[in-house]
């Protein structure tokens, strides 16, 4: 039965969603905890928060630092990755820093941010940059540094100058990985934005979560959490679709 | 293919003067030690006559490709000398074009752009270079595939793009590194014939690395047989198979079969067991 | 990079950064950045304290238990997804959503459900790390060449032998990548969880040090944490490199 449905992904997906939501509903009915609302209650709260403009206001606040932060890191990070991929000295100096940052719980630095940037917009931008930079830089670096040898040799054999080789071979060959880095950076940026809103000052979605928890309105709190997961997933998925369209896998170097 | 020059068995030092009657390429006492101490080449010497097709054949891992890449200027020799038209080779030049074993096509570019890429790098205006490339794409038998991408082509067709790219830059010397290694047997035979036909129109000097004895005998005017690494030249032979009777005739001719046997006998001694 | 013909290992560039840090600290350019040597001295102050030992213990405890849960469930779900297409498409959607979503937002809900103690931290570690482990396991199992599986079958391998002798080993490169990424995410999870809970573990210490403006102590703790995370991921990466040696000819 499941095998037959595998041919129709929409059926399977809908069934999967229904199953998980059903499980949630059942968990809320038991109830697992007084702080665990039923699925239906949460969805009603979700609808209400869309209708009364709560979400619109909150996401208008959250979007600012997120977009500015990811845009800054997108430009700066890709440039840093390019330079590191092309220049061995910069690679030597910079790469270990980003490898360490990538592997470490750099969120621990967030409590310090307020000392430099206060509790406003800039602090949140910094949190977004802090979390999204390593993956963007490292992906760009890898895209540039791992240009297939045979293409490099080919450009040599056909007398490419250094700049033509970078422009016509190295960057096109790396562009898929660079874009994937931007997508992963956006996902990290969401984490950074939410963390800043929960930890530094309650604004936007972080404020909704904190506020409804403090007044024990659990359906609305869960609806807020659900909303940020949905928004993040949808935007990352859209970026992934765009990526597949722009850099089709078969047009990437192996 | 014409046999205008006879091979010189003993290399003589170059006098540095360009001599259109002399060999197109001279390889003198070439040695290559890779980082890590692997000795690939140990005193390789041979001449490539102008306007002919010379194959380099030998057991796998004997440094055939390394030799070709040193001639191309893609790899530096540890010692020894490669001269093209009397000038020592230190880097790739416009007088040589390379056909790669793994095709080395840009997956994001169309057949036409790939074929025109050598000209693009030389700064030839778009219209002009696409015209030239289009001509060669048709010549290698890919008419109608100009706007296709490499992933839409079979291995044999991809290599035809690689060949078109190399021909489009109009270099005197064509360096082909096991061009048919990733192409299946039937396509390979067709491709060999097309190659010979094309070359007879283009009048190029071709150096052709292969591990197939049949292929070497079939396509070559001259065959350089190399020993196991650290390699030297075992023998230089000129099969001179009569090609007048068409491919089926050649492959059945006693001279062809005889040469295949003789080269096999020569190579057998160097095979690893 | 090469210096007078000697290759200088890349990790040495960190020394350059530490030197720069020292200079910035000595010049008192930024109040938040004390000289690096002061940070090193603060190690001796921070590490032996009862606060630190307690924080480290509870953090490690949460980390180890959470990771153990992640490995068991992540490998299990990943194997099922890789071996069975229906399970793969049924679970794949959820795994992909949670793998790339800001799970930080869930922590407040966990606090409401599970309180401010160990269970919340364990749940955070688990939720941060399990998805990537499942995903990499699935990829690894799917990439095992079907001829290898058919070979095992045709030589009469039992199901058990198929899993342990063939699938587990052939998928090892991806499994190790999953373990490494899972460990990294788990570390991030435990720290983020504790920062948000704010009353336990290293998260509490970070809050305390930054609120009391004990900068050398803050940075010392951060270096301890970063070093631990880096060494843990490098240890797995070491095995990954060893495995990739034979995996290259799969």
Looking at the structure, what is the overall shape of chain C?
A: globular
The number of helices of chain C is: 11
Count every helix of chain B, treating DSSP H or I runs of 4 or more residues as helices: 9
Ends of chain B: how far apart?
Answer: 37 Å
Classify the oligomer. Answer: heterotrimer
Structural class of chain B: alpha/beta
What is the highest CATH level, the class of the largest domain in chain B? Alpha Beta
Low-confidence stretches of chain B: 1-18
Topology summary:
The complex is a heterotrimer of chains A (254), B (273) and C (250).
Chain A: H1 2-5, H2 9-29, H3 39-51, H4 54-86, H5 88-103, H6 110-117, H7 121-145, H8 149-157, H9 162-199, H10 204-214, H11 218-246
Chain B: E1 25-33, E2 39-48, E3 53-57, H1 64-72, E4 79-84, E5 87-88, E6 96-99, H2 111-115, H3 117-121, H4 126-139, H5 155-168, E7 173-177, H6 185-202, E8 205-209, H7 213-219, E9 222-226, E10 233-237, H8 247-252, H9 254-268
Parallel strand pairs in B: 3-8, 3-9, 6-7, 7-8
Antiparallel strand pairs in B: 1-2, 1-4, 4-5, 9-10
Helix pairs in contact in B: 4-5, 7-9
Chain C: E1 2-3, E2 6-7, H1 13-26, H2 36-46, H3 50-83, H4 85-99, H5 107-114, H6 118-143, H7 146-154, H8 159-170, H9 172-197, H10 201-211, H11 215-247
Helix pairs in contact in C: 2-11, 3-4, 3-6, 3-9, 3-10, 4-6, 5-6, 6-9, 7-8, 9-10, 9-11, 10-11
Can you walk me through this structure?
The complex is a heterotrimer of chains A (254), B (273) and C (250). Chain A contains eleven helices and no strands. Chain A has one domain (53-251): MetI-like (MetI-like fold, Orthogonal Bundle). The two termini of chain A are 37 Å apart. Helix content of chain A is 81%, strand content 0%. Chain A is mainly alpha-helical and 254 residues long. Chain A is globular, with a radius of gyration of 22 Å. With 273 residues, chain B is of the alpha/beta class. Chain B folds into two domains: 22-59 and 70-95 and 173-273, 3-Layer(aba) Sandwich (Rossmann fold), CATH 3.40.50; 106-170, no CATH class. Chain B has nine helices and ten strands. Chain B has helices at 64-72, 111-115, 117-121, 126-139, 155-168, 185-202, 213-219, 247-252, 254-268; strands at 25-33, 39-48, 53-57, 79-84, 87-88, 96-99, 173-177, 205-209, 222-226, 233-237. Chain B has a six-stranded mixed β-sheet with strand order 6-7-8-3-9-10, sandwiched between helices. In chain B, strands 2-1-4-5 form a four-stranded antiparallel β-sheet, covered by helices on one side. In chain B, strand 9 (222-226) and strand 10 form a beta hairpin. The N and C termini of chain B lie far apart (37 Å). Chain C has a single domain (51-247), classed as MetI-like (MetI-like fold). Chain C has a two-stranded antiparallel ribbon with strand order 1-2. In chain C, strand 1 and strand 2 form a beta hairpin. In chain C, helix 3 (50-83) packs across helix 9 (172-197) and helix 6 packs antiparallel against helix 9 (172-197). Chain C is globular, with a radius of gyration of 22 Å. Chain C starts with a strand and ends with a helix. Classes of the chains: A mainly alpha (254), B alpha/beta (273), C mainly alpha (250).
């Amino acid at each position: 039965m499941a095998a037959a449905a595998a041919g129709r992904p929409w059926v399977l997906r809908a069934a999967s969603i229904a199953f998980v939501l059903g499980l949630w509903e059942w968990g809320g009915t038991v109830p697992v905890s007084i702080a665990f609302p039923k699925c239906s209650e949460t969805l009603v709260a979700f609808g209400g928060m869309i209708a009364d403009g709560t979400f619109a206001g909150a996401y208008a606040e959250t979007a600012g630092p997120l977009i500015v932060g990811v845009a800054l890191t997108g430009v700066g990070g890709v440039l840093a990755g390019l330079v590191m991929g092309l220049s061995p000295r910069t690679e030597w100096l910079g790469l270990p820093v980003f490898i360490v940052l990538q592997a470490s719980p750099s969120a621990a630095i967030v409590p310090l941010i307020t000392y430099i940037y206060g509790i406003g917009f800039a602090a949140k931008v910094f949190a977004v940059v802090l979390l999204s930079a390593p993956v963007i830089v490292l992906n760009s670096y890898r895209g540039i540094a791992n240009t297939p040898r045979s293409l490099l040799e080919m450009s040599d054999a056909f007398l490419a100058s250094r700049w033509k080789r970078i422009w016509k071979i190295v960057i096109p060959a790396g562009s898929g990985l660079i874009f994937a880095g931007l997508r992963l950076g956006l996902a990290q940026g969401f984490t950074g934005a939410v963390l800043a809103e929960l930890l530094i000052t309650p604004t936007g979605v972080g404020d909704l979560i904190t506020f409804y928890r403090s007044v024990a309105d659990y359906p609305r709190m869960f609806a807020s959490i659900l909303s940020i997961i949905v928004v993040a997933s949808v935007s990352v998925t859209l970026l992934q679709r765009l990526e597949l369209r722009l850099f089709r896998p078969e047009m990437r170097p192996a | 293919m014409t046999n205008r020059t006879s091979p010189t068995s003993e290399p003589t030092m170059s006098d540095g003067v360009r001599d259109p009657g002399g060999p197109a390429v001279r390889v003198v006492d070439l040695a290559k030690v890779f980082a890590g101490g692997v000795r690939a080449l140990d005193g390789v010497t041979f001449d490539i006559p102008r306007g002919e097709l010379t194959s380099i054949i030998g057991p796998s891992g004997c440094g055939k490709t390394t030799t070709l890449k040193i001639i191309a200027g893609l790899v530096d020799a540890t010692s020894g000398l490669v001269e093209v038209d009397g000038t020592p080779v230190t880097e790739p030049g416009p007088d040589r074009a390379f056909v790669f074993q793994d095709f080395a096509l840009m997956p994001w570019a169309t057949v036409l752009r790939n074929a025109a890429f050598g000209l693009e790098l030389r700064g030839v205006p778009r219209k002009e270079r696409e015209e030239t490339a289009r001509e060669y794409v048709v010549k290698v038998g890919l008419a109608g595939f100009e706007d296709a991408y490499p992933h839409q082509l079979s291995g044999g067709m991809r290599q035809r793009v690689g060949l078109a790219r190399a021909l489009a830059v109009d270099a005197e010397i064509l360096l082909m590194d096991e061009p048919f290694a990733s192409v299946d047997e039937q396509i390979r035979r067709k491709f060999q014939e097309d190659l010979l036909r094309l070359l007879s129109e283009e009048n190029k000097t071709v150096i052709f690395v292969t591990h197939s004895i049949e292929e070497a005998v079939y396509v070559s005017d001259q065959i350089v047989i190399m020993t196991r690494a650290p390699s030297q030249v075992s023998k230089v032979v000129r099969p001179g198979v009569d090609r007048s009777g068409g491919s089926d005739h050649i492959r059945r001719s006693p001279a062809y079969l005889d040469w295949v046997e003789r080269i096999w006998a020569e190579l057998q001694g160097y095979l690893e067991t | 990079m090469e210096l007078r013909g000697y290759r200088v290992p890349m990790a040495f560039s960190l020394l350059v950064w530490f030197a720069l840090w020292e200079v910035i600290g000595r010049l008192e350019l930024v109040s938040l950045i004390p000289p690096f040597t002061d940070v090193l001295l603060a190690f001796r102050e921070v590490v032996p304290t009862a606060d630190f030992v307690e924080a480290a213990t509870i953090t490690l405890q949460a980390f180890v238990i959470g990771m153990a849960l992640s490995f068991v469930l992540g490998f299990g779900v990943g194997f099922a997804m890789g071996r069975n297409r229906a399970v793969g498409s049924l679970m794949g959607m959820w795994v992909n959503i949670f793998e790339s979503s800001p799970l930080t937002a869930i922590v407040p809900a966990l606090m409401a459900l599970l309180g401010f103690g160990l269970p919340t931290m364990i749940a955070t570690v688990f939720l941060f790390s399990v998805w990537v482990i499942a995903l990499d396991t699935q990829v690894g199992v799917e990439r095992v060449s079907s001829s290898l599986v058919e070979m095992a079958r045709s030589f009469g391998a039992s199901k058990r032998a198929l899993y342990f002798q063939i699938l587990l080993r052939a998928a090892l490169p991806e499994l190790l990548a999953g373990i490494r990424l899972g460990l990294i995410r788990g570390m991030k999870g435990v720290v983020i969880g504790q920062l948000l809970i704010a009353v336990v573990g290293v998260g509490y210490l970070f809050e305390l040090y930054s609120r009391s403006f004990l900068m050398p102590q803050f940075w010392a703790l951060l270096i301890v944490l970063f070093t631990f995370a880096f060494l843990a991921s490098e240890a797995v990466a070491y095995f990954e490199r060893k495995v990739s040696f034979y995996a290259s000819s799969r």
